[in-house]
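Hi,

I'm pasting everything inline rather than attaching a file, because the server keeps stripping attachments. The sequence lines come first, and each chain or strand is labelled.
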Amino acid sequence: MEEELRIFLSESYETLNSLDRELIQLGKNPESEEILRTIHANFQTFLESSKFLHFSKLESLTHIGERLITQLIQSDSEVSGEMITTILKLNMAIREIIFHIDETGSEPPSINNSIIQDVEEVIKKSEAEGMIGDINDVTDIFMAGTPTPGVSSESDLTDRLMNTVVEMIHVREKLFNFRPSVKSYEYSQVIARMASLVSDVYTQVRNSKTQPVGTLVLNLDKIIKDTAKQLGKSVILRIIGKEKEVDSKLLEGLRITLVQLLHNSVTHGIERTDQRIANDKSPDGSITIECYQSGELFHAIVSDDGGGLDPDKIRKKLVEKSVLFTEEAAKIPDDEVIHYIFKDGYAGLNDAGGFIGGRPSGMDIAKAKIETMGGRIFLKNSSKGKGVDIHLTLPQVNAIVPVICVNFGKERYAIPKIYLVEIVPMDSETLIKGIEVIQGHSVFIRRGKRYPLIYMKQILRYEDPDMKELPENPLIHIVVLENDGMQFAMVADGVSDMEEAVVRSMSSQLSGIFLFSGATILSDEKPSLILDIGEIQRHYLNSKLVKKIVNFEEIEVDVVPTEIQNNIEPPFLEEFLK
Amino acid sequence: MRKICTFMIGGIRFGIDVLKVMSILQNIEIVRVPLAGKAVKGIVQYRGHIITVIDLRKKFDLPDWEVGSNPLHAIIKTKKGAFSFLVDEVGEIQEIQQNTKVEIGKNVQEIDSFYVSHSYKLDDSILLILDAEKVVEVKSELSV
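And the predicted assembly:
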């Protein structure tokens, strides 16, 4: 409990400060829904923590605060100065309780209830006004040439600027592809100058929308040290790539996830100092966060040098949590069961160790959080006695990334160039000759190397409405890609030139689909999904069997294809080439 | 008084506050999104943005589009950004009075009342006001 209280307090001060800052911002931009949402999130944080730690007075204050903000968000109108004062008062009252808890460890015996009544009244009043609000100046949408306000709910200036710049980049790409009938040196000079100006504006706007990861790690260090001390452990945190920039909007989500992962490492990963010494390890545990950017993604790898994951413990927990039956869990090999820490329901609300500062925690929740931001999280490595590496990626929204476009049937997808090794055009007959099926896996053999094949049409559930139109012996392209040291291939019906694409975010309906890391608008102004090559490789080709096949290692005959491998069955070649 | 833009979808008339309707488009290329939920028709490009297209007929479990039909995209502003709602046709703009509001639930037979925020009595019919926020809410829609 004491450890939780300590984390709760340190987080609370942080949340209070953030509340203060946001309220000042709200005073300046009373119509900003984004600020309201941040404030709402702050109140929710308090609400969850106080529920968990049974601080009923704090709970009632934050609950009413949350209700008030919810209503402000729904009402869609400007927040009045009066309203801000009310929220400030609420904030003050919360702060007083926190101070009291910090000093005495418990809530004050009584609080001034008048603030709650005041807020109740405000809520009732605005409920009554409800849906009448701001309908006064209606513009007829069907009037020609009526300008529409920004498309998304993003309201601040840099967001709007960014959208304009992105459109300018599209125009620039178009200009580059434009071939005038008369070539003029002067003309191309002007275009080049224009293009570089667009790039300048883009860089400046983008810089204002991103923040270095370093800004969020300052207090991570403190949280870790405190937690470690409580548990009789000593931990050193190292961060590589502090200067790497992340979209400001993703920063908070990234912070929550990192706190989650670090907390996990400290409590479950790193051993106590005496154990470490007994195991011949350095007395201080070490946790490293490595940040880097590649292609369309921002990466962070959290590694510790603790005890690593224990497959048997994980099996036990999976059974306890009713995720799997005992027999099922026993069947899963060690190197696969460890990935189940991300399975839904692995850590839940009932878990004693499953809270950080009052929020439910656990890998499955971290995963859900990252996925709503369009990111991915996975276990990179775990070896007994040596530690765990967890890898997370986030899309670099608005980043410019060179992509190639590949066609599967009539559909077109973008692949960031960074994954591309080579494109080999060939006719389908040569392809069939070069394919071998080993233990249910198709590999393409070229110059003595084996490239596992990924049947994209099948994965993308592509159905061609009129398949017969294609020629008998079509020219196809083997697209060789590389991720995490493995080279593999996709068969594409066509490949187009490289172009610069701006990574755009997708709605929450789509950001969780593992096949895609984002979307973009290509120079022909049509949208295109960006394939998440890393995730596709991990999903379909990450088994030991595939690695053995690639390395020409001997395969025991009794290897049973596992769940992951079964996901990809080679289709009948003839059908696939149609 | 509110101004409501009315739409027809599968024989049902419903409305959305005119302020939320950003544009009506037709014949724009929809790119399919594999593994997306059944009500997600795909994505389109609209003024440099990627916009998710929601097939309202699928969403409301209405009969599918007839082959060769050419639905309209109503670009709707929501708190989660802009979405395109596929509709059969766009009707006139209705002005409605606050006092014509009627209880919902009893009058909503055709579509799930979850998606309806209010309903209003017009001269000869009932107009359902669609709750755009509920339509774009994510409820474990992934098919995998």
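The interface with chain B takes residues 33, 73, 131-132, 134-135, 138, 140-142, 148, 151-154, 163, 166-167, 170, 411, 459-462, 504-510, 512-513, 515-516, 519-521, 525-529 of chain A (CB under 8 Å).

If the labels don't parse on your end, tell me and I'll reformat.
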